[in-house]
């Protein structure tokens, strides 16, 4: 059985490892079934995308709409662009988490900017009719709570994209291109403990007032975010293996 590929853009060792472990656990994958490449610390090696059942793109501090980008970010975007192009061409299973929305939208000619950013915390996600009919949201309730925290979001979808989930502050919380290329603005890889850990790691990255870190951590641990949002990861694995 083919493994999955995780492309990480997190430069922090603890954040990257936490994300990898969470995705593997919640997707029902063993560590051997999830190969990770950290594009924030290395260039994409010469890999054959057809060796993988599907691709996860994790979140991170990069933004497609950043006015000034480091050489590391530009290289990561170029590497990601090649993988996105290959996924679109093959209609390969691809799931972008948070940053994946910006990377996918920008690559496919949509518009991502700072209009619909959301502070670190929870958001109410409403699944559209298209989402209810999609295997990614199989067994997921029509309305659910999920963790968010992003500076940019979709303002104009790429041509042919279909909205699968919306939110009050951010109108595009999930979309799809083709049959199996997805992106979510919210974080299906986070449960309350995972969000609390991530808040500690990113307390000085401009997502929130660092003096409010402990308050936000307490709110995350008490948040009504259940396993239904994490189910998207296992659903993605299942549809990728069909």
TrEMBL record:
GO terms for molecular function: transferase activity. Residues 43-192 form the Glutamine amidotransferase domain. Keywords: Glutamine amidotransferase, Transferase. It comes from the Bacteria. InterPro entries: ChyE-like (IPR044992), Class_I_gatase-like (IPR029062), GATASE (IPR017926). GO terms for cellular component: cytosol. NCBIfam families: PRK07567.1. PANTHER family: GLUTAMINE AMIDOTRANSFERASE YLR126C-RELATED. This is Glutamine amidotransferase. It comes from Tessaracoccus defluvii.
